[in-house]
Design brief:
Elements (H helix, E strand, L loop, with lengths): L1 H47 L8 H13 L6 H19 L3 E5 L5 H10 L4 E5 L2 H9 L5 E8 L3 E2 L1 H9 L4 E8 L3 E4 L8 E4 L1 H6 L1 H7 L4 E4 L3 H8 L5 E5 L1 H6 L3 E4 L9 E8 L9 E8 L6 H12 L3 E8 L7 E8 L5 H11 L4 E9 L6
Parallel strand pairs: 1-2, 1-3, 7-8, 7-9
Antiparallel strand pairs: 3-4, 3-11, 5-11, 6-9, 6-10, 12-14, 12-15, 13-14
Amino acid sequence: MAQRKKTSKRAGSAADLQKQLQQTDRQLVELLHKRAQLIKHVASIHAENGKVSLEDPEERQRLEALAATHTGALPPECVRRVLREVYSGSRALVRPVRVAYLGPKYSYSYLAAVERFGSAADLVPLASIAGVFEEVNRRQVDCGLVPIENSTDGRVVDTLGMFARLPVQICGEVQLRIHHNLLGKCPQGEVREVYSKPQALSQCRNWLARNVPQARTVEMTSTAAAAELASQRQGAAAIASYEAGVNYSLDVIAANIEDNPHNVTRFAVIGGQPPARTGKDKTSLMFELPHKPGALADATTVFKKAGLNLTWIESFPIPATKSEYLFFVELEGHPTDTRVKKALEALGRKTVRLEVLGAYARSEPVD
């Protein structure tokens, strides 16, 4: 009899908890709808004042701060992703942010675009980095997303070249941890060809040599296109994202095959609204120096004297010139900061051309 009462008590407790869960779920949905209505009211007020309400960097930053500072049962990364989709869906009620990216769907650029803007954004795949810049410059999209550097392969030449050609600003960045997977429909020992983008093949070359030495590598225009082709051929495999494998019904033959376990690609968000100063910002510069001895040393002295930390510096040959370069620099700070402002004034006196490409909040790598 005692055992029966104990079991009954447990069952009653479980039923009570289930009711609480259902009630909490209803409240959660009601709050989501309430938040969406508030966003629509804010948008209507902005419209009356002549302001187009699209992506709101400050709102997004507030949500990210909430995820980072409020601890509980759920991991912060899980909370952040939920809030990202809440933000994306709420903004889509006004009008989805139209974002151009280096396609196709399920490429790493696509994953970075979803990471930044959420799945409710209007994501527009384009065949080239130049195409993304041109769509942004022609204002056919609200903003674009392009890869700018990889921790293994370094700078993305096509992106730097387009900054030199078109007056496009950087308004943010996404740092995405790149996890490559060998995807296919056959066992590892039966793989005869491996398809992928040149950069992905390069980032996995040592793993491929050790584990599938019998396979020939074939370069493709994108990792997603590689996954599609691998789904159609016997003895073929692709190096691509897990999401691409799911989309094309491929098995994960081997996961996380990148040679560098800290493989990160940084993407620049171009166009869009300039974000407000956060106090944890980076400023991107592009400049050209006089073609004379010591010009670069003189220029970098400006940052040292101002006590500014450089997080990135790259040189890029200027087309149709002989041994002349553009320099791309990122530094910690915002152009409105006193030290940065004085450094830019001093740098301007030492350069032939100086452009502030943008200032935006520093980001951390995400999976």
